[in-house]
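User: Second chain of the day. Same drill as before.
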Amino acid sequence: ILVTGGARLDTLKRQGDALTGRHYSHHLHPLCPAEVARASWPVPADLPGHFLEHGGFPEPFFNPRDAARLREERFRSIVAEDIRDLTRILSLRQFEVLIEILRERGAGQISYSALAEDLSISVPTAIQWVHWLERLYVIFLIFPWTAATVRSLKKEPKFYFFDCAANLEMAPRLENLVAGALLKHCDFLRDTAGRRMELRYFRDKEKHEVDFVVLENKRPC
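Assistant: Same format as last time:
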């Protein structure tokens, strides 16, 4: 069993390996309130507040005094090592700014045109940079749910951090915490049972919104 805390193994894996039936990938998510509440170790008195303040990554969760430092070091290492080594991006300082912008605008819709304008880059470049943050498991995207999958992919997704406490403001952290727990549930069922689970959100033409819709076989469940 090989367990990695980074995304390099997934990012660099070779295509075409004939390992069907011999190789299974499981998503390793941060801790979530449901599993901590069932744990045998002492649980923080204010469990939701602990998650919102320190996030669900194990080391910051169990060492809250170092949580802020560990988080900043993680973001620095992503840019200084992963982004530098895995991409041809030369403007690492701009990539740092991208992460800061997303941390300020947490739990919202991504506007690639606005990001491109803020960073003085092209829209395709903004899309590519956000894609790299996905590949490195910094953020995940949730697309709107519509009857036609192709149409929904053309609409602006919402973004969330795998570390809910990465949001600079406290307000979006709760929504981010719920999003992470639901995604973890969907990935668990997909990885262990092969069930076709998806996490989406719903917004109508009047901009009434349902934050999360869990789908199985393209249908709300």
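The chain has a mean pLDDT of 89.

User: Great, on to the next one.
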